[in-house]
Each structure stands twice: as C-alpha cells, then as structure tokens.
Write a structure and sequence with these properties.
The structure holds two protein chains of two kinds. Chain A has eleven helices and 14 strands. By secondary structure, chain A is of the alpha+beta class. The termini of chain A are far apart. Classes of the chains: A alpha+beta, B alpha+beta.
Chain lengths: 291, 708
C-alpha cells in the first residue's frame, strides 16, 4: 500500500480546495467501507484522502412533510433506518440502508458513499432514483444539482469533476398515497452483493385503485444503475392490477443489459429484473394500501 | 475390565456440559496462534507465484534485504524449478512490521519463463492440453478399479435402470483461523505456537526438517480456529517461519492471508461421475457401474466413495484423479464421502422413482445397517416424512416445499498412541495432562468430564493441560474423528489408576481396605460405612508432601469404529428466483457412546452447516484464461452465514457404551438430503453441486419447455 496523506476538512470550501489541488489523485473519504478496502488492496492509488465527514453540511439529516428530506452525504445508513419518521416516509430507502453489509458496516457506510462508489450493484441507488433524489455537488465553481439517475456514468465512474464532491441529497416530500420498496436477489440472505436489485415508488389516487405515477430503478443489470423510464411511465393513469404491474415488469426487463460473471448470468439477471420489479411494485402498492 | 458403565450410572458422561473454554472464547480471552505476540517478534510474509505454470529462472532477494526494517529473507524455491500453480511459494521475508514485510515482498525480483497451463478438469484430460505432470498420461492418474459380482447378470436382472452424471466442485476448508505459526529459537531449542490439529506430528516435522532431536522442539496449541483436515503439518509456511526466525535471531509470526488459504492450504477435490445402476422390481439394488474422476489440483488423491452405504452385489468402478494447475488437495472433513454421498443418494431417489417406490422404503431394503434402520424411523418422524410431495413438484404456489434424505457412514474409533497422566495434589487439585489438541471439538471438556466422573468432582474442578508437547505425553493428530475415542480410554485409565493409588494411600485413615473406598459428590467415603466420609480435599490432604499420579494406557474395550448417520431435509424453493431456503435438517447421528451431549450436538450442527454450504453455496472458481482462482476471499467464495442456518434437530443417537467419534460423519449426508428435497419440491433434479438459483431457473425453464 502506497503512503498517502489524510486531511480531515472542516468546511465545504476547504474540502473543495484540497480536492482541486490534487485532482484525480485525491478522493473524499466518508465511511470508507469501499475506499479504504480498495486502497489497501491496491485497486486504487491515492496521494490524498480528504475526510469530509466532519463537515456540517455532509452530516445534515432533516425531514419535514413540507420540504422533504435533506440527507448529508456522510450520514451512515443506520441513521436512516433507525429514524422512524424517515423510514415511514421513504421505506424504499430504509429497505436498502438496512441490507448494506452488516450492522457494523451500517454504522459507517453512507448513502452518499454508496452512490459515489458507483457500483452498478449499489443497493441505495435504485431507491434514490425512484424517490427522485437530487444530488447536491460542491466544486470550485460553486454547487450544482444532478438527479440521482444521472449521477453514475459507468462502473466506478460519476459526473464528479476534479475538485467536486457530493455534499448532500434533497429528496422531495412523499406525496399522498405514495410509498416505495427495494429488494434484491443475493445468493445468501445477507452480506452479499446484489445479483439484481429493483426499487419502485408508486403514487396512487385517493381510492388507491389507480396509479397516478410510478418510478422503477434497477441495479446490477447495466454499467450503471438504471431508471426504467418507459416501464415507469406505462403505469401512470392505469388501474392497479396484476396486468399493469406485469406489463411494467416486462418493460423493465427490456432495458436490462447485464453481463455474465461469477455472481450471475445474463439470462438469470434478465429474468430476475422482471420478477423483482414485479415484487418491488407490489411491495410499494401493498405499503400504500396498508397505510 | 474397564468399562464406561451403564448410562443410568454415569453422572457427567453423556450429559450436557458447557465447554470449559467457552467463556474465554466468546470474550476474546482465549489466545489463538494469531494472538501470540513475543518480545521482539518479527512479521513474516511470503512471495507467491502470480502465474499458474512457469519455470523460475532467477531470484534476487537483494532489494528486499536492503529495505530498512527487514531482518531476514529466504528463498523457498530454487531457480530451474517449476511453479505449478498460482500461489506457490517463491520466497519469504521477516520484518519489524507487517507493512514492511509486505513492501519487502514486492521488492523481491524474479524471472520466469511462462509455461502453458490448464485449470479446467475436462480440458486437462484432452490430448491437446499441456502435460503438467511428468508421471501421468494426459494429466490422469492410474485409475483405481474395483469389480465384484457379475455386472452383466446384474443388469439383466434389473427391472429399472438409471444412468446419470453427478458432479461437485472443489471446496476449500475455510478454517476461520488461517494456517500459521509463531516460531522462536532459544539456542538449539525451537518453540512454535502453531494452529495445528497434530501437536506431536508437527513437532516431529520440525525436528526432521531442522535435523534436531524431537525433545528440542516444543509445539503449543492452546486454542485453534479449525483445521478440518488441512492442518496436520507445518507446511511450507511453518517451516519458513522457523527458518526466518533462526536467520533473524528473533521470533517470527507468519499467518496465511485468506487468499493464501484458498490457494495453497488444501481443498476437497472435485467429483464427476458417470454412473449406471439398476434395481429389481422388489427394490433391490442389483448392479452399479461407475466411471469417475476428480481433481485435487497438482496432486492426486481425488477419490470418492461409490457405491456408498447401500449394498450392491454386482459392481464395477473406475476412479482416477486429474491434475490441473491449482493448489493440492488435503484431507477435508470425511474425505471422499460427501462427494460420494451426494451422487449415491441422488441416484437412490432416481431409482426409487422409476420403481414407483417410496425412497425411504427403497433405502430400508438396501441398507444393511441396523443402526441406520432405527435412525430412519426417528428421522422420518422428526421431519414429517409423510408430508412430502407424492408427486415431486406437485405443490402449489410460487414457493414450493420438498423433503428429502441422505445417509452416511464413517469409521472413527480410537487407536493406541496417546499417553496421559492424571495427578492428584495434596490440596485436592487435579491435573489431567496429555498431548492432544482441541481443534474446536471440545476434547478439553471431555477430558475433564471423564476425570471428574471418576473422582466424583465437577468438570471445572479438573485442570486440563493439552495442546502442548512440553510435558512429553504424546497423542495422535485429530483426524478421522479419532480424537475422543483415542484419548478418552487413556484418560479414563489414568484417572482410575490415580484414584486407586489415592485409595491405597488413604485407606488406613478410613480403617478399611482400598477396594471399600468410593469417590462421589465431592467426597471420599467407605462403602461399608458411609459415615466414614471426608471431602475430596480432606482426602487428598492425607497426601502431605506427596502427589499421586496415574498414567493411562490404551484399552481396546472402550472405543470402536463405525458411525452410521442419516439426515432429512425440508426445503422451500422460490420458483421465480430459484432461491433455495433450507427450512429444517433433522440429523440423526450415531457416534457410539456420547461423552458430552452438548459438544456432540454442536459437532453435528457444524457438520450440517458445512454440508449445507457444500450443497448450495461453495465453489472454487478457476479462470481458464488466467489460471487464477477468481474468488479467493469470503465475499465471492460463499460459505454459510448465520442467516442460512435452518432449524437443525441434531440427535446424537446412543447405540452402545463405546466411544466412536463424530467430527466428520455429520457433514456427509447433508448435500444428498438437500438435493433430494429440492427435487421433491420442484420436480426437477440438479445433479451438479452447488445447487444455485441459476441452475434451478434453467432446469425449471427446460422442464417447462419440454412439457410444452
């Protein structure tokens, strides 16, 4: 392991200045559950780690029914699922936060880091996509907002430029009669990487019999997590029924372009997209009806 | 004639006694080799081959030697020799920190001429494959052949036949504590803290390697984190640790990494078999013809059992090993048996179905073991055998349940070679000393139980000293499930001898004969007059300045081989995702006399859990393009985690009053039982382990396509 510098930044500006100076030889450190492992194994070489988890803006966790959720990029997973109000408002995000690693990892790993690591199989990204999360990015030219589905550009690749880092997420307040759901398929029951992950959010009408809108997000079936736009749009205005859900699941299946690797084959993953999308949609619908 | 006595007479033997080291282990107080730190200790690391096959032409250690903090560097292979698998040892370093040792490894320069390699078993048998063993033809060992009865006549008599190919991948041991040693020299004396399952065997190995007398070597294994057959000798890494230590003049700790462990520390060979078998209308197995092979990497030793458990009169088998460029196999928990069991019990179910017979009934007809016959009854009741699907796959809904079974047999039994001493001190303390080792099975507690039973004390009253060759009381390696049956008789006779000596010494104080004295409930008393009674401590106090020791001797009548077992599994298969969830395993395991029911059940649980991993998860994956193992970690090499563990009903099946051993047999029947349960659930058979979700989805899809 090559020696590198470690600097804990106290402010957004300080972090940006440090990151900008070292360019691609610098990385922000949040929970470190991916970055430290990569550096230790020699998969990532760095001159500088800028610890961003002491910065107030990356630690914000505030929710209101009016403005929605403001989630700092360094907030660890457990703080999300341990908060009853946030879990109730964004159950799909809590589903994902609960299954990343084990309890110890969840005390460290952040949703922001999960997104920035840009694994195609990242569990929190489909929920971020279906919950219409907006990523707040700070950089040398100030801040900019990027929708979650546009943040990843390839495996391990993101829209972040040199000197930029993810500060927080803004997630809109849940609409009436809405809910969300995330699930994945793994060979074991915990501590595994998704073979396929599927998230869904639905907004139903006041009778809870028709879709107002829906969003479907997928993981591990393409170089980046996907927003299944057409499949999502197909549900708007339709009656809540097995036919509608199955058709959307079938449509989601068509955008999957997975690879075969030791975790799963192309055929298996394409098949699972349909199964898991259906289950995610039904899970979200069930939650609306229960509420 | 020594005996263990009748069950109703024993106070501790066969009861549920918590492990004496349990609290130390769960609190982190127990010191494993990994935890040993010596003053001035250095850290060892090994440079390993990054290619699957090459000739090494030059090694230059100077770069590593020049690094500040490096205290010793040694080559582990001579130029001109071949590197025959990824991970093979090239050189080793010792440095003042682990990080410096890692850096030093990278500074060692070496040159290689790469050679063609093969890591795929089928490919290795092809004429065009590189020949990686000079002594074998087409990378295949001389087959072992067996023939009995008249195969042709047998098949002529058969009413039904099944012909199928079954296979299982290479499984690695995954000892939670990796292999490793801390070696320290004091003049010509070598002390090694070793994670070993053979304290005295390891002592001999080091003595022979360094050409020093055995009594100059001391091996210490206070606690160790699993061996499963892979830790019988120091290996290259242990000898390297001791050599580095001698060269550096300082203690050296050298533990393998998890990746090293997968690559070089042994594995269970793969198995592929083509088998044709027949049965008569009345359900008798009548003919069995098998050709099969497996790979133990670069070494041989890839055989497996078959036919297995059930009797077949007409048999022909041909089994051979295939060499590939991968690390060598080592004995792994019931070598050869889980492979054979999976195939045999799958075959039994396939034959039973063709006969239209209940698979349990079919087994009953062909199983010669009376013990297993009784276990079948118990197991069928435990799992609710009557609930299984009459028509495989006949259940309703997305998630389908099924029930299956499998069987196993194992040797176990004890052998001579252990020496033990039980000492009674005047303050009443009792020491039991022998050179065995507790590789996690609980022998420490068993020894305490035996002595405490004899003396009328509690297990925690006995100071058990094992895992150290220092006292010079040898015992054998912990292999073949022979530890308890080998150690228990000797400890028993040592305790009896010590007690007899004590009684002889103190009988005058009781004004009676030694034969009249008894030890029970923490007291010594006269049988003829129980009012003549003193506490154990009071009795021992009569020794004054003396101590009393009893030496044990091997005794044939206290242990015997032969462990019969059966397991029943219930599974639930999600037919949309292919996920298999094991709901329950009922494991009925005969292991002779149960010494400690709690640790015995724990052994059965462990065997089931490991067998479940073999059935559903574990698979060493080799990349044919690079020759690398691509999952040499615990992220992608999947073992069972807590969430996969089903309800396990472990029943130690008491059969007689002799000790047999239980470590290995309980892992044998699991894979076959689960495979048969999966078939019963979905009506499609997976003949290739592990039974993964994608195999199930493919099989279901093929089945659906076939039935139109």
């Amino acid at each position: 392991m090559r020696a590198f510098d470690y600097i804990p930044a106290k402010t957004v500006d300080e972090a940006v200045a440090l990151l900008a100076e070292k360019g691609d030889q610098a990385k922000p450190l949040s929970g470190g559950t991916d970055l430290i492992v990569m550096v230790r194994e020699g998969r990532r070489q760095l001159d500088l780690m800028v610890d961003v988890k002491d910065i107030p803006e990356t630690n914000v966790l505030s929710y209101s029914q009016e403005t929605g959720l403001h989630l700092g990029a360094a907030v660890p997973c457990y703080q999300i699922y341990a908060d009853d109000e946030i879990s109730a408002a964004y159950p799909g995000l809590a589903d994902a936060a609960k299954i990343i690693g084990g309890t110890a990892i969840q005390g460290r790993a952040s949703v922001g880091g999960n997104l920035c690591n840009a694994s195609p199989a990242a569990d929190t990204i489909p929920p971020l996509i279906v919950l219409e999360a907006v990523c707040v990015i700070a950089g040398p030219n100030g801040t900019r907002d990027v929708p979650a589905e546009q943040f990843c550009t390839g495996p391990g690749q993101t829209v972040l430029e040199n000197g930029e880092f993810l500060v927080s997420f803004k997630i809109p307040a849940p609409k009436n009669n809405s809910s969300s759901y995330y699930l994945r398929f793994i060979p074991r029951n915990e501590m595994d990487i998704a073979v396929v992950g599927a998230g869904a959010s639905v907004v139903l009408d006041t009778e809870k019999t028709s879709f107002v809108s829906a969003r479907i997000g997928l993981a591990a079936v393409a170089p980046t997590p996907l927003f299944a736009e057409e499949a999502s749009a197909s549900l708007a205005g339709r009656e809540v029924s097995d036919e509608a859900v199955n058709a959307a699941a079938e449509a989601a299946r068509h955008i999957a372009r997975p690879i075969s690797d030791m975790r799963g084959t192309i055929e298996q993953r394409v098949h699972l997209v349909e199964v898991l999308t259906r289950r995610a949609l039904n899970g979200a619908i069930h939650r609306v009806k229960e509420s | 004639m020594a005996s263990w006595g009748e069950a109703h007479e024993t106070r501790l033997i066969g009861k549920r006694i918590p492990r004496l080291s349990g609290a130390d282990k769960v609190s982190g107080k127990a010191k494993y080799t990994f935890d040993i730190n010596r003053p001035g200790m250095l850290y060892g690391r090994i440079l390993r081959s990054r290619v699957a096959h090459a000739t090494i032409t030059a090694i230059d250690l100077s770069g590593a030697e020049a690094l500040s903090g490096v205290k010793a560097v040694i080559p582990l292979i001579e130029p001109g020799k071949r590197l025959r698998y990824e991970g093979q040892e090239i050189a080793a370093v010792a440095a003042i920190t682990d990080d410096i040792a890692k850096d030093a490894v990278r500074l060692i320069q070496y040159e290689i001429e790469e050679l063609p390699f093969v890591v795929d078993v089928e490919e290795a048998m092809d004429e065009s494959a590189p020949q990686i063993r000079d002594d074998w033809h087409r990378n295949q060992s001389q087959p072992g052949n067996d023939e009995r009865g008249n195969l042709e006549a047998g098949f002529a008599e058969a009413a039904v036949e099944v012909e199928a190919t079954y296979s299982a991948p290479v499984q690695t041991h995954v000892c939670l504590e990796t292999h490793g040693h801390v070696a320290e020299w004091d003049g010509d004396n070598l002390t090694v803290w070793a994670s070993t399952q053979a304290v005295f065997g390891t002592r001999r190995d080091f003595a022979q390697h360094f050409k020093i007398p055995e009594d100059k070597v001391r091996i210490i294994t206070e606690h160790m984190g699993g061996g499963f057959g892979s830790k019988f000798s120091p290996g290259v890494e242990g000898r390297a640790a001791a050599e580095l230590s001698r060269k550096a003049g300082a203690p050296v700790k050298l533990m393998l990494t998890r990746k090293d462990e997968h690559l070089v520390a042994g594995n269970r060979p793969s198995m592929t078999q083509r088998v044709r078998a027949g049965a008569t209308n009345d359900g008798r197995l009548i003919a069995y013809d098998l050709r099969g092979y497996g790979t133990g990497g670069i070494s041989g030793g890839a055989s497996f059992t078959g036919p297995y458990v059930y009797e077949v009169p007409n048999v022909r088998t041909e089994k051979f090993a295939v060499a590939i460029n991968a690390g060598s196999e080592r004995a792994m928990r019931a070598p050869g048996h889980p492979q054979g069991e999976f195939a045999m019990d799958s075959l039994m179910d396939e034959l039973a179905e063709k006969l239209g017979m209940d698979p349990l009934e079919f087994r009953r007809i062909n199983d010669p073991s009376e013990i297993r016959q009784a276990e079948y009854t118990l197991g069928a009741k435990e799992i609710g055998w009557h609930r299984r699907n009459e028509v495989p796959g006949g259940g309703k809904g997305v998630k389908k349940r099924g029930i299956g079974m499998g069987s196993g047999l194992w040797g176990g039994g004890g052998h001579a070679g252990t020496q033990a001493r039980v000492t009674i001190h005047a303050d009443g303390t009792v020491e039991a000393v022998t050179g065995t080792q507790d590789l996690g099975t609980g022998i420490r507690t068993v020894i305490a139980i035996i002595v405490a039973e004899e003396f009328g004390l509690q297990p925690q009253d006995i100071s058990v000293k094992i895992g150290d060759s220092g006292p010079g009381l040898p015992s054998g390696g912990s292999g073949g499930s022979t530890t308890t049956p080998s150690v228990a008789p000797v400890v028993k006779t040592a305790a009896t001898a010590a007690k007899e000596k004590l009684f002889e010494r103190i009988a005058p104080q009781f004004e009676t004969e030694p034969e009249d004295l008894r030890a029970a409930d923490g007291k010594v008393y006269a049988a003829s007059d129980p009012t003549k009674s003193v506490s154990w401590k009071g009795a021992a106090g009569h020794l004054g300045m003396e101590t009393i020791s009893g030496n044990g001797a091997w005794h044939d009548g206290l242990s015997e081989p032969g462990a019969a077992g059966t397991q029943f599994a219930e599974v639930e298969v999600d037919t949309e995702t292919g996920e298999v969830k094991v709901i329950k395993i009922a494991a009925i395991q005969d292991c002779g006399l149960v010494m400690n029911r709690l640790t015995c059940e724990s052994q059965i649980n462990g065997g089931v859990i490991m067998g479940l991993g073999y059935a559903l998860l574990e698979n060493r994956i080799m990349d044919p393009l690079t020759g690398y193992m691509i999952n040499p970690n615990l992220e992608d090499y999947k073992i069972v985690g807590a969430m996969e563990v089903p309800e396990i009903k472990s029943i130690a099946f008491d059969t007689d009053r002799k000790v047999t051993g239980v470590g290995e047999p309980a892992t044998i029947p699991t894979a076959g039982a689960i495979a048969n349960a999966v078939y019963n659930a979905i009506g499609v058979r997976i003949r290739d382990l592990p039974i993964t979700a994608d195999k199930i989805l493919n099989a279901l899809a093929e089945n659906a396509a076939a039935s139109g």
